[in-house]
Every structure is written in structure tokens, then in C-alpha cells.
Amino acid sequence: MQVKVIEEYRTPDHDPITFAAGEAVDVGHRDDEYPGWIWAKAKSSNHGWVPESILKIDSLGSQAIALEAYSAKELNTYSGEWLTVHRVLNQKT
Structure pTM? Predict the structure, then answer.
């Protein structure tokens, strides 16, 4: 799917959460405004929002195993440029 950027975006200066498939992560609270997202802390990086669908959460709800690799790195965009969407996760309707 192709989408056209309507407003320029500059990424904030932060170290996003990243982890590999099979990596253990600590999980916290779920996002009430954006269902399907959960706060997580990777052992090897920072914390941030992660799609719950890519985690296998333990029965206590405090630990999970990543089912796939993930990075919350954001990209700069420019008004008028065209982007290709490869996958949509937990889109807010």
C-alpha cells in the first residue's frame, strides 16, 4: 500500500526499544488509548511501547518472549513524499 505524507515529522532524540526474536522482555501496563500495545523493557535496550501480538506473555503477565524481532525506531518524513506500508499493527480506528 502506498501512502502520501501530509505533514513533515522529525523523530525525537531517544534510544528506542529493540529486541531479537526469542529474547525475554519485562512487560508492564497496556495502553488504554491504543489497544494492542504494551509497555515493555528489553534486557538489552531501553523500554517502550510494543505490539502485544508479537509477544508470548507468561501466566503472571510480567514476562514475555519475543515471537519476532522488533525495533521502535521512528523515521523522519517529508511532506509530499510517498511511502510504502509493508505491515500495519494495531491500527487505531
Answer: 0.82
Q: Which residue has the cell 508470548?
A: 56
Q: Report how far residue 35's alpha carbon sits from residue 37's, in angstroms, rounded to the nearest whole number.
A: 6
pLDDT digits (tens, 9 = 90+) for 55-67: 999 998 899 999 9
Terminal CA-to-CA distance of the chain, rounded, Å?
Answer: 18
d(CA 15, CA 21): 19
> In sequence order, what DSSP letters do the residues of 28-80 get, joined into one string?
EEEPSSSTTEEEEEETTS-EEEEEGGGEEE-TTSSEEEESS-EE-----B-TT
